[in-house]
# Entry
Amino acid sequence: QVQLVESGGGLVQAGGSLRLSCAASGFTFSSYAMGWFRQAPGKEREFVAATSWGGGSTYYADSVKGRFTISRDNAKKSTDLQMNSLKPEDTAVYYCAAGTALRGQYNYWGQGTQVTVSS
# Structure
């Protein structure tokens, strides 16, 4: 069955860095766009970053542009989110997702990993 498993979350001070990873299985990874989303307490889930099936196209939420970088390795069926210059407002549960189009609907979701940024 389809599985997306995130890892790499944790507690970090403001200004620090974290790298999230997502391991995929159960579907043709290289045919899907991959995205990262996040949900803070009391807020709706929001888009963070996405990469096209081949990795040639990426796009980011304005709030993370220049600080976060999404990448993927189709051979390893994984996608990463490098997060630098973290801010307390980046605190959220981060989810990995797979979709049929870069800016389309995302069909498969992971269970999430907690990122907490202390001030």
Remarks:
- The chain has a mean pLDDT of 96.
